[in-house]
Amino acid sequence: MDCVILLCMGGGFPANPECNAAKAEVVRRITPNPHSEPPLQVWNCPMGASFSPMTEPVPPARVSQAVGQNWSVENVPEGAPTMVSAEPAEPATLAFIRSIRVYNVMHYSHAKQGRDEDCTESWSMQLGSYRADGHYSWSGLHPAAVPGWVGLSRSCNPATNYRGVAFEWTDYSGRHGTELVRY
Predict the structure, then answer these.
(1) How far is CA 21 from each of CA 10, 11, 24, 26, 94, rounded to the nearest angstrom?
(2) What pLDDT was estimated at residue 173?
């Protein structure tokens, strides 16, 4: 499944059954039930070379990775078979993996509290991302750093209570994509 996620995400999750299933798997992984997982687990994708005819038309791409190396995606001529190989990759390409961000909002509230009804904000949030070396890690997150499309309201009137997980990526051609799951 991780090879499918890699290829579909790199292509911007085109609308086809395989990529729809891959995107659903990413959402399942990032939704904390009982805990979140990395959306793309590249270590589960075998990197041996294989050629097979494609039955569905998809943008041709060659994906390459070497153990301990960075990933790369290159366009190949139209009609060429898709190939997954274990050859070294250039560090700047396949940056879409490093563009992946998971905003895990375990708790966020902004409401009037106390006798004076002061506006107070409380939160528990994490940002999941891939480091330059390809490892996935979580770090603390402040509400001000959460993008507007996630939908956090920092207004006290009306009060805000929010839980959710949001996922964003940029595909190999630079198109931005997002997915939001409130729970």
Answers:
(1) 15, 14, 5, 9, 22
(2) 85
Containing structural domain, residue 162: 101-182
> CA separation (Å) from 18 to 11, 24, 181?
12, 10, 21
Q: What is the mean pLDDT of residues 48-53?
A: 35
Residue listed under structure tokens 């595909």: 171
Rounded mean pLDDT, 7-36: 91
CA distance 17 to 25: 12
Q: How far apart are the first and last CA of the chain?
A: 25
Say if residues 61 and 7 touch (Cβ distance below 8 Å): yes
Clarify whether residues 67 and 116 are in a common domain: no
Same-domain pairing of 30 and 105: no
Give percent of the chain with pLDDT exceeding 90.
38
Listing DSSP states for 81-122 in one string gives: PPEEE-----TTTTTTTTT-EEEEEEEEEEEEETTTTEEEEE
